[in-house]
Specification:
single chain, alpha/beta, seven-stranded mixed β-sheet, about 35% helix
Length: about 1550
């Protein structure tokens, strides 16, 4: 929920370079860098050049940010470093680990603009800008009257083209002196200075509330700039850029050709001075190919002088000097002469000597060798000739294109005859000397005092790479004549750094600082071809003068990604976008939607959220000053509707002076010398040089500019664009706080209505809500003011059009609307149906719309109640009418009565749990059912929809279509007893108001209510858990919710009843019998498959998960009850595998009892006075192996007696046949499999058991396929002594020994009958036996002749621990599986440190997957990592999922693997421990990512190989979550 500071989180991922991704932030935001999964655990440093407080920004100075880990060290999920962003500009960050740069990018912080004497903020989305060509403002004393036109038209920003002295061409962008004010602005009586301009700008800001920005031109200067002749090194000339010599020579040849054509020298060859036909062009092409190119011999600049080279080669051969060895792959190539002299190129003679080797030293051999060398030289020269020819072909094509456009094309300037003033083509270079013949001029090109004044002009290249400088070496743009050249301006050559051209950098820096001093912002002229490093340096200088500098630019890169490079590196605030680029009204509407705002009805976003890539902020202009006039392209009628559509965009908007006055031609930046009109309220349409509200569309412009500023200031930031028909566009701006809307309906006129057909029938429009007023209606109309005549002195527009405008009227007064009727769309949704009669092309009508009054009140009350979750909802809230009493209590108050078992009902419960309770999960039509009946089911879907505002999702559609989901949420809880019901009632009361709001707003308010409730419930959940959880990281907290997810109480009890003598047992009233019954929490093995009925509780799963899910989270009482409940079912010395409430229990596993005993030990260690549990009474269900189930309270024994019984029975030996053996309890088991045996080997102390027809450990897959003939055969019997059971037994024996020494446990050993007499084995002796034999018999020695190795031929991995000892199939003992780390964790004393570490390294190398551990060595011949339980084929090893534990990656073993690594690495030393912590954090980061993304909010039972999704796995498994919590607890 948005409250307090806005924080954005940027996840760093290894090798992620984001220099083409735009991240926009506002001042006052906090930016957090956090480690993504690829970097967690690594030692990462983040560097940024954002300045520290009080420091001056230096973009080359990066500082290392410090890390904060608010919850300590267990994992990196919350570790972050942060920036508090208070200064606008562009900042670069990068990060590194192990001193290697690993990724980076940029952030752009927007400036805050301020206007008025009080310096109030002007939000960027409120900007309305108008461009003026500065030279057309005339003398400075007339500026105020001319700029007043913008003020009166409602603009709040003026953009002036450069105000500096102009060059000879008089182009606004060709500056003769960057530091001098244009002298045209001065009059004899008043000199215009920078100070005067500064005062004017300040006056506009303080008195007119207007800002003023101007252009900066970094690419070129006017050819006649005095300073460039004094500093020719600042240009690309033939001295510093000799690669341009061939281009210059061609350029001069074309000039001489111009002179000859102009003089009629080629008329007899079909090329007159007046080129007006295609065959004239053909003649021109012929002249160039046959006369110009051959005489220039341009190829010689790229060729070698063959005779000279051969002579040099011959000399070297005959002298026989020692040659330098060269790379044999290096071939002979032309080395370009850096001075570009004819035939000045060379080749590497060393390569030549190594390539052409004479077979002897005789003169014949040398001559032969020289001939081969000559042949190769001629071939290389031939290649250079062909390449030059290829450039010449392109040059001719470009020349033809230019001549054709300038002299023949209908849309071109039709320059007429070729003259010196209008040459064939624009010159690419300056030539400030007396004209000579071409041959004489060529000589000058090698004379530095002359050549430095032959400077390249600037221009632009169609489709060129904007990140490449086209005048640098390597580019052939000038030679190929691809430059569209500005013959009045010289391209500036900065080099790579200020030292490369000190004067130019200093001059331009001074110019920049002066601009920033006097103006509020800059437009970067020709930005896409300004060298980025130059603009970066200059803008840094500008921001040093004015920190909140507004920077705009128009980019023509053709790629949003390359646009982002410019925006990022330069910190551009707004990119200029143009409505004129739209080819129809539909596209114009799309641009409005594209350039800003959220969809209407968007969700409320949290204040802490990921930083998402943005598109550049737009300055959306109806027309820019360097583009053609829309009246010529569209029609005069379109000016008003298009400017209305543009001004409804949720971004900055703008226009160009002349558009509003309907000037019917482009106001040329080069040729226009007339002045703009002045403001005069009394002027008539034909008064020359004066305008007012009756001129053009100025009156309409004022109204829409005011509206644009109001919508931006009042946060109408949601946008909807409706294409009503091919010409009508309706744009809605909506305020998400007050739910007011403004709807502008514009009928465009892309075609002239006088000459094109427009239908009289305009479609009816439906506007939801209540129309408060018509803000304005306006039509473009003709009036009788005489025809347009271009004025000689003032820029004037069409006098015969104006706007008929009416503002703030009621619907009934409208002239555009025929009638408006109210229809109801739903119980609380009113729609006004509008029929138009005068919506002619060129008309607009704008409505102010609010919700229906009843709906408005409901939203206000809802927002009032939502304030308890976030202050964001204060605006637009109304006091409660008091009709719902329960809402007087806060949700926190009501929810704090929920227990963790209640929270399981409120938040979770999967479909089968819900069905057992008589319900089910909500099913969304045309989509899927929710994962949970509780709130998490909805929150998981919303978490995907909310950040993207995916209002088209079927989930949102279902909410809009009816109240079914809303009612489901509250009614499901009301039907439950106690505190759950109260929560349901509170929600139902909130939903009463929710149902009264318009349907399109229901998804966002439904989300807001549930997010508030959900976050409150999570906080209450964590408050009831251990300190480890309460003070833990986000990861720990989210994992701990697995405890709530898995632990619940269903309609029917899952656990057998506890002893009535036991204290603190929860009771409840049975809904059906109305009798009191125990209500103990049970632990589901996994969702959705093991969640209800007899398949919910499993002995093994419960006790593997219990430590992590219940003890680590602090749920001690519930853990005690589960331990005791399972204890009551002890039979044959075993704990059941499948519990079946005790009465349907199956005692067919050998390990559950040992996990149960381990949990009792863990309980005693975790809980203060934990050993008290040993005395707790247990009601025995089966006091003897054969007794029927007894009711609770009949036979109570203390827990310690049951522990002793389990130990005693194992030492005595267990051997029985399962009750009801046969297909009725297991349809796949063979008969022998129902025989259960277990015992202890008297020599080793190892527990053993099982046979090859049953599987008594966790790897319990029984074959099911008749077809593959594996039915009734376990895939992994693991009979003999399984390594983890030996470890668990050792742990228990050691613990009981300790307890008996402290007199807490009354037995010091077990007494068994052997051969008719009693024999006692002490726990001390048992413990020592296991200790003495474990490594000897379980470790697979690296010594091949180890005498302890019974089956050396079966060894295929050394330095590991066996999976079992004494299996009926001995090779199974030697399989590498992930079970021995379990023994390492529970009984580390059995392992020697070095061996343990090596074995763990092998496990990591072979079995570690992304989320889990491979259950079998991939080198094993039966390994298969993909589990498919549905597949039935002939393959014995995989049919019907036979490979369940033969490769797929199970999650729970990874917990024990990581815990073992942590334990042993600590013993080895700090360096290894630090590396291990990195590994652990890195592995756990993947679990965190999975947990966050999973709609189940859990971790799966298993994955297929390499972490791939397995559809047959439980989506969330108790032991998977538990072991990860245990790892974090160990960390």
């Amino acid at each position: 929920m948005p409250q307090g500071k806005q924080t954005r989180v940027l996840l760093l991922n290894d090798m992620e370079k984001l220099d083409k991704t735009l991240f926009r932030l506002e001042q006052g935001f906090e930016l957090q860098f956090r480690l993504g999964p690829t970097l967690q655990g690594k030692h990462v440093n983040v560097y940024c050049n954002y300045p520290t407080a009080g420091e001056v920004f230096d973009r080359h100075k990066f500082k290392c940010l410090s890390w904060h880990n608010p919850t300590g060290k267990e994992d990196d999920s919350d570790k972050h470093c942060k920036l508090d962003l208070q200064i606008s500009g562009s900042y670069q960050y990068y990060f590194s680990h192990e001193n290697q740069k690993s990724g980076g990018g940029y952030i752009v912080v927007d400036p805050i603009l301020r206007v008025g004497a009080d310096n109030h903020e002007l939000p960027l989305d409120c900007v309305t800008l108008q461009t003026f060509l500065a030279k057309c403002l005339g003398p400075f004393d007339g500026w105020e009257d001319r700029l007043k036109v913008a003020k009166e038209s409602g603009y709040n920003m003026v953009h002036l083209t450069p105000v500096q002295k102009l060059g000879l061409s008089r182009s606004c962008y060709s500056l003769a002196d960057q530091l001098e004010v244009n002298p045209d602005f001065s009059t004899p009586n008043r000199k215009c200075s920078w100070n005067e301009i500064g005062k004017m700008v300040e006056k506009m800001k303080n008195e007119w509330n207007m800002l003023c920005i101007t252009d900066v031109v970094y690419n070129h200067t006017a050819s006649n700039s005095e300073w460039i002749t004094q500093h020719p090194e600042c240009a690309y000339n033939l001295v510093n850029s000799p690669h341009l010599k061939p281009s210059w020579l061609l350029d001069r040849a074309l000039w001489h050709l111009t002179c000859r054509v102009a003089g009629g020298k080629y008329s007899d060859r079909g090329l007159p001075a007046l080129i007006e036909k295609d065959n004239h062009l053909n003649s021109l092409r012929k002249v160039i190919w046959e006369e110009i190119f051959p005489s220039l011999r341009l190829w010689e600049f790229f060729q070698v002088d063959v005779n000279k080279a051969v002579q040099q080669f011959r000399t070297l051969l005959t002298q026989g000097g020692s040659k330098v060895k060269t790379d044999p792959k290096q071939h002979l190539a032309v080395i370009q002469d850096p001075e570009f002299k004819r035939l000045g190129c060379t080749v590497d003679m060393n390569v030549a000597l190594n390539t052409f080797i004479p077979h002897s030293n005789g003169p014949t051999a040398i001559e032969e060798c020289c001939n081969w060398f000559r042949k190769r030289m001629e071939e290389l020269n031939g290649e250079m000739y062909r390449q030059t020819n290829y450039h010449q072909e392109q040059a001719v094509n470009c020349i033809m294109g230019t001549v054709s456009y300038e002299r023949l094309a209908g849309h071109g300037p039709k320059l007429g005859a070729v003259t010196r003033k209008y040459p064939l083509v624009t010159s690419y270079f300056t030539y400030p000397f007396k004209e000579l013949s071409l041959e004489e001029e060529e000589v000058m090109m090698h004379q530095p005092d002359k050549a430095s004044y032959f400077m390249a002009h600037n221009g632009w290249v169609m489709g060129d790479d904007p990140l490449r400088n086209f005048a640098e070496p390597g580019s052939n743009v000038y030679l190929r004549r691809e430059l569209i050249c500005w013959g009045d301006s010289v391209k500036l050559r900065y080099g790579n750094k200020p030292e490369d051209c000190p004067y130019l950098w200093a001059h331009m820096k001074k110019y920049t600082e002066m601009t920033a001093k006097y103006f509020h912002g800059v437009r970067l002229d020709n930005c896409h071809s300004t060298p980025l490093h130059v603009a970066e340096e200059m803008l840094a200088a500008a921001r040093a003068v004015r920190p909140n500098l507004y920077v705009i630019a128009e980019l023509f890169t053709g790629s949003e990604l390359i646009d982002n490079v410019f925006v990022n590196r330069l910190g551009i605030t707004s990119l200029i976008r143009e409505a004129m680029s739209a080819y129809n009204s539909h596209e114009e509407g799309r641009l409005v939607y594209r350039f800003g705002g959220d969809p209407v009805g968007s969700f409320v976003q949290p204040h802490l959220r990921p930083l998402t890539p943005a598109i550049a902020h737009a300055l959306f202009m109806d027309i820019t000053h360097d583009n053609e006039c829309p009246i010529q392209h569209r029609s005069a009628y379109d000016a008003l509707p298009t400017s209305t559509i543009v001004s409804m965009a949720c971004c900055a908007t703008g226009s160009t002076q002349g558009y509003d006055e309907l000037v019917p031609h482009q106001i040329s930046v080069v040729d226009e010398e007339r002045f703009y009109p002045k403001w005069n309220p009394a002027a008539t349409p034909l008064t020359p040089g004066e305008v007012n509200f009756k001129t053009g569309i100025i009156a309409g412009r004022l109204a829409i500019n005011r509206l644009h500023q109001e919508l931006g200031a009042r946060a109408f930031n949601q946008v909807f664009v409706d294409q009503v028909d091919e010409d009508i566009v309706a744009v809605t701006r909506h305020c998400p706080n007050t739910h007011q809307s403004v709807v502008a309906v514009s009928r465009t006129a892309f075609r002239n209505p006088k000459t094109s057909f427009y239908s009289q029938e305009v479609p009816q429009m439906c506007i939801p809500g209540k129309i408060e007023e018509v803000v304005l209606e306006a039509r473009t109309v003709e009036r009788n003011a005489g025809p347009y005549k271009k004025d000689e002195h003032a820029i004037n527009g069409l006098p015969d059009y104006t706007v008929e405008l009416r503002e703030h009227i009621q619907l009934t007064e409208s002239k555009i609307i025929r009638q408006a009727s109210v229809a109801t769309k739903g119980p609380n949704e009113f729609v006004q149906e509008i029929e138009f009669e005068q919506l002619t092309p060129g008309s607009v009508i704008i409505f102010r719309v609010s919700l229906d009054p009843k709906a408005q009140d409901a939203v206000g009350v809802l927002r009032n109640h939502l304030i308890q979750f976030s202050p964001h909802f204060k605006s637009g809230s109304l006091p409660d009418d008091g009709s719902e009493a329960i809402l007087k209590t806060t949700f926190l108050n009501i929810a704090s009565k929920l227990t963790l078992a209640d929270l399981n009902q409120v938040l979770y419960r999967c479909d089968s749990e819900e069905q057992e309770d008589g319900g089910g999960c909500y099913n969304i039509p045309n989509w899927t059912p929710l994962k949970y009946g509780g709130l998490q089911g909805i929150m998981s879907v919303m978490a995907d929809i909310r950040p993207k505002n995916d209002l088209g999702h079927p989930f949102c559609g279902n909410l809009r279509a009816g109240d079914w989901m809303i009612d489901y949420v509250s009614d499901r809880l009301i039907a439950r007893p106690g505190a759950c019901s109260e929560v349901g009632k509170w929600l139902k009361a909130m939903f009463i108001y929710l149902k009264q709001v318009p349907r399109y707003l229901i998804p966002c308010y439904f989300d807001a209510i549930l997010v508030g409730a959900y976050t409150t419930l999570l906080d209450l959940t964590w408050k009831q858990m251990s300190n480890f959880v309460q003070n833990g990281s986000t990861f720990v907290k989210h994992l701990s919710l697995g405890s709530v997810q898995m632990c619940g109480i269903g309609k029917y009890p899952s656990l057998p009843p506890l002893s009535p003598a036991l204290q603190d047992v929860p009771y409840r009233l049975n809904e059906i019998t109305k009798e009191r019954e125990q209500g103990c929490v049970s632990l589901a093995a996994g969702l959705p498959h093991f969640s209800s009925g007899i398949f919910r509780c499993w002995g093994r799963d419960t006790f593997i998960a219990l430590r992590g899910l219940m003890l680590v989270t602090g749920r001690y009482l519930e853990a005690r009850n589960i331990i005791l409940a399972f204890g009551s079912t002890l039979r044959h010395g075993l704990i059941p595998n499948l519990l079946g409430q005790g009465t349907h229990a199956r005692f067919n596993c050998r390990d559950a009892v040992w996990w149960w005993l381990q949990c009792i030990q863990d309980y005693c260690n975790f809980v203060s006075n934990g050993t008290d549990i040993l005395k707790c009474p247990i009601s025995r269900m089966y006091p003897t192996d054969d007794s029927p189930p007894l009711p609770p309270g009949q036979r109570d024994h203390p827990l310690y007696e049951l522990i002793q019984e389990a130990m005693q029975r194992h030492m005595q030996g267990i051997d029985f046949r399962e009750r009801n053996a046969g297909p009725q309890i297991d349809r796949n088991m063979r008969d022998e499999g129902f025989n259960v045996t277990a015992g202890v080997d008297m020599e080793t102390g190892f527990v053993y058991g099982g046979n090859r027809f049953n599987c008594g450990t966790w790897m319990d897959k029984m074959g099911e396929s008749d077809r593959a003939r594996n039915k009734g055969i376990p895939a992994t019997p693991r009979d003999g002594s399984a390594v983890e059971i030996v470890g668990l037994c050792k742990s228990t024996v050691r613990w009981l020994l300790e307890l008996s020494k402290k007199n807490i446990f009354p037995y010091s050993g077990v007494t068994v009958k052997r051969h008719g007499k009693e024999e006692t084995v002490t726990y001390d002796a048992w413990n020592r036996k296991i200790q003495a034999h474990f490594e000897k018999l379980f470790f697979v020695s690296e010594n091949p002749s180890d005498p302890n190795e019974k089956h050396p031929t079966l060894v295929h991995k050394r330095g590991i621990y066996k999976d079992s000892y004494g299996a009926s199939s001995p090779w199974c003992d030697y399989q590498l599986r992930p079970n021995f780390p379990i023994a390492m964790v529970v009984a580390p004393e059995m392992f020697s440190i070095e061996r343990a570490w090596k074995a763990l390294e092998m496990l990591e190398q072979k079995l570690l997957g992304p989320l889990g551990m491979k259950t079998l060595d991939p080198d094993d011949m039966v390994y298969c990592g993909v589990y498919d339980n549905a597949l039935d084929n002939d393959n014995y090893n995989v049919a019907r999922g036979f490979n369940y534990h033969q490769g797929p990656e199970w999650l729970w073993p990874i917990g024990y693997f990581l815990r073992a690594k942590l334990y042993f690495s600590k013993l080895i030393g700090p360096e290894i421990y630090a590396k291990t912590v990195f590994l652990v954090k890195n592995v756990l980061s993947r679990h965190y990512v999975h947990l966050e993304r999973s709609p189940w909010k859990g971790l799966p039972e298993l994955t297929n190989e390499n972490g791939q999704y397995c559809p047959f796995s439980c989506e969330t498994q108790a032991w998977s979550i538990a072991v990860i919590l245990e790892v974090l607890y160990d960390l």
